Amino acid sequence: MPLEIGQFNNLQVVKIADHGVYVDGGEEGTILLPNRYVPDGLDLDDWVKVFLYFDSDDLLIATTETPKALVGSVELLKVIDANRVGAFLDWGLPKDLLVPFSEQHHLMKEGESYMVYVFHDHETDRILASSKLNKYFEEEPEDLVEKQAVDLQISDKTELGYKALIDNQYLGLIFHGDAFRPLAIGERLTGYVKTIREDGKIDLIISQHSSQGDNSLEDQILAHLKASGGESNLTDKSNPDLIYSQFKVSKKKYKNALGALYKRKLVVITRDKITLISAKKTSSIWG
User: Fold this and answer.
1) Which one, of 182, 267, 269, 149, lies nearest residue 218 by Cα?
2) CB-CB contact of 18 with 57 (8 Å)
3) DSSP string of 204-266?
4) What is the pTM of this model?
5) CA 40, CA 71: separation in Å to the nearest integer?
6) Separation CA 57–CA 98 (nearest Å)
7) Alpha-carbon distance 190 to 205, whole Å?
8) What is the CATH number of domain 212-286?
């Protein structure tokens, strides 16, 4: 089996030296695992799980430490130096991870953190990173359908909303109105495909209830009021997190649904609570 550079490999010890042990790298020859990473009791012919990367001399080296990112992954990493070569990221290993200028979506600044894709550049035989996620991930899906549950990773914030990586495969957008709270760059959460546009791009939501329409939300609010004795302290002034905890929707959608119920004369809204006007008036809701 060929080596996977930038990944963990299970390799056999073939030589023991004063400065470490050497593992069998197949066509790559023997690879050093320095003493500081050698597990206690490791002996000749034993197998050991190691991460492979290039050291400061661009030589393939092994470690038993776990880096903050693997080749093929997208992670939020911090810039610890930015110079004429590019930006260098802390990925938890002695040699920092380079983002060349050609792979920077915006000019990176020291001290800032960015979402980057880690890859093995076979032309230079180096492990590099890129903040140009649209260069490596498609925006037009081949196998997604509306209302499908997906794993999301927030990659950027724009004027329209939040860009997100979908199932580590596609890029999509969560509009601000479909996010009940501020989302953190790098945050992982479950979401849903809201719609796939005519141009093939993906709109996302973070609440399945949002995809079922406001009428359904109105029914949920009425059911909640009925179960709570006709009153609730979740008003249009409530904390967005409390609203999401109960109804899994944004504060904006909740306010719109409350407004619709008020216009239908089904609820009274005050600063501190909402009150169901009459169970009789809502009987048609439950049949």
Assistant:
1) 267
2) no
3) EES-GGGGG-HHHHHHHHHHHHHHTTTEES--TTS-HHHHHHHHSS-HHHHHHHHHHHHHTT-
4) 0.73
5) 28
6) 14
7) 9
8) 1.10.10.10
pLDDT tens for 183-242 read 999 999 999 999 998 888 999 998 765 444 455 788 888 888 888 888 999 988 888 888
Give the span between the Cα atoms of 119 and 73, in whole angstroms: 8
**Can you read off the two tokens belonging to residue 113?**
């953190």
Crossing angle, helix 240-247 and helix 251-263, to 10 degrees?
70
Average pLDDT on 157-183 reads 91
Yes or no: say if 25 and 16 are a contact pair by the CB < 8 Å rule: no
> In angstroms, what CA-CA distances link 274 with 86, 256, 259, 261, 280?
56, 14, 11, 11, 17
Q: Which two tokens stand for residue 206?
A: 């973070």
**Topology of 74-134 in CATH?**
OB fold (Dihydrolipoamide Acetyltransferase, E2P) (2.40.50)
The Cα–Cα gap between 93 and 281 comes to: 66
CATH class of 8-63: mainly beta
CATH architecture of the domain with residue range 149-206: Beta Barrel (2.40)
Extract the tokens encoding 82: 């930015």
CA 200 to chain centre: 21
Q: Which residues contact 277 (CB under 8 A, 6 or more apart)?
A: 265, 266, 267, 268
Dihedral sign of CA atoms 224, 227, 231, 233 in order: negative
Percent of the chain at pLDDT > 90 equals 64
Residues 6+ apart with CB under 8 A from 165: 74, 115, 133, 137, 152, 153, 155, 171
